[in-house]
Amino acid sequence: MAQKTESGNKKSKEVYQRNAEIYKLLANPIRLEILDILKDREVSLEELSEIVGIRKPNTSQHLAILRYLKVVSVRKEGQKAIYKIVDKRVIEPSKILLKLWGKDSF
User: Does domain 11-100 have CATH number 1.25.40.10?
Assistant: First the structure.
């Protein structure tokens, strides 16, 4: 049996860590809904809060997690924060999960 190099183990652990973070991201219904909204267009924090039906600070916390994981980015338009998906790879697992439970909006 071939042994893995130390750097090979580290890379594997990094991949597993990233996958675990994405699973945590997808385990939250609010973040799934935000991804569903952002999949087709850029949306402001205010509009996301209104659509999702939660207060802006709560929406902001969810978006901060998505930004930390480099799934979305934000830009300023005057006083407004506008969000968009930058890592489209997250949409596919999201689609699969939503299809499994009857939501076929993607």
Answer: no
Q: What is the pLDDT of residue 3?
A: 46
**Segment 68-94, tens digit of pLDDT:** 999 999 999 999 999 999 998 888 877
- CA gap 34, 59 in Å, rounded: 9
Nearest to 62 by CA among 90, 27, 102, 97: 27
- The larger pLDDT score, comparing residue 3 to residue 38, is at 38
Backbone angles phi, psi at 30, to 5 degrees: -65, -45
CA distance to 32, 68, 80, 85, per residue, from 55 (Å) = 17, 20, 15, 21
Give the residues across from 83 on adjacent strands: 43, 74
Nearest residue to 93 (alpha-carbon basis) of 31, 9, 40, 17: 31
